[in-house]
Amino acid sequence: MGEKIAADYLRRNGFRILYKNFRSRRGGEIDLVCRDRREETLVFVEVKTRTTDAFGPPYAGLIQAQQDRIIQGAKEWLRLLNDPRVPYRFDVVEVLLKPTTRVHLIRGAFQMPDDIYW
């Protein structure tokens, strides 16, 4: 449910959804792979959904192990493109479902470490 809400939000805000639920052979996972049409940037998106923010914002649930899986997936996607110059970033979309649905985009939520090459 959260991923559909996030995808709809991104489309309305100038993103083109390229792929949903990308899984790499090396264990990487990406909820949404998008193109930000405004910046011509490839965007790897993690969707974090919570019913309420009683235990903090959804982004707070993004642990390092999840970031590592997203980065691993991004490395595989970039390998498939075979173009090291393509601009990319990692965003998080927070979806809160109650009391009313709210969506918040965090651009550049984290980065690929400098010592990681794809």
CATH architecture: 3-Layer(aba) Sandwich
Q: Which CATH C-level class is it?
A: Alpha Beta
Can you give the mean pLDDT? 91
The strands making up the biggest β-sheet line up spatially as: 1-2-3-4-5
Based on Cα principal axes, name the global outline.
globular
Low-pLDDT windows of residues:
none
**Total DSSP E strands:** 5
Helix content: 10-25%
Main beta-sheet annotation: 5 strands, mixed
Distance between the termini: 31 Å
The string of secondary-structure elements, in order, is HEEEHEE
Q: How large is the share of residues in beta strands?
A: 35-45%
Count structural domains: 1
Radius of gyration: 14 Å
Overall SS class: alpha+beta
Q: Can you tell me the CATH topology?
A: Trna Endonuclease, Chain: A, domain 1
Give the helix tally.
2
Task: Summarize the SSE layout with pairings.
Elements: H1 2-12, E1 15-23, E2 29-36, E3 41-50, H2 64-81, E4 88-96, E5 102-110
Parallel strand pairs: 3-4
Antiparallel strand pairs: 1-2, 2-3, 4-5
Written overview of the protein:
This protein has helices spanning 2-12, 64-81, and strands spanning 15-23, 29-36, 41-50, 88-96, 102-110. The mean pLDDT is 91. The protein is globular, with a radius of gyration of 14 Å. The longest helix is centred in the middle third of the chain and has 18 residues, at 64-81. It has a single domain (2-110), classed as Trna Endonuclease, Chain: A, domain 1, CATH 3.40.1350. Helix content is 25%, strand content 38%. It has 2 helices and 5 strands, in the order H-E-E-E-H-E-E. With 118 residues, it is an alpha+beta fold. It has a 5-stranded mixed sheet with strand order 1-2-3-4-5.
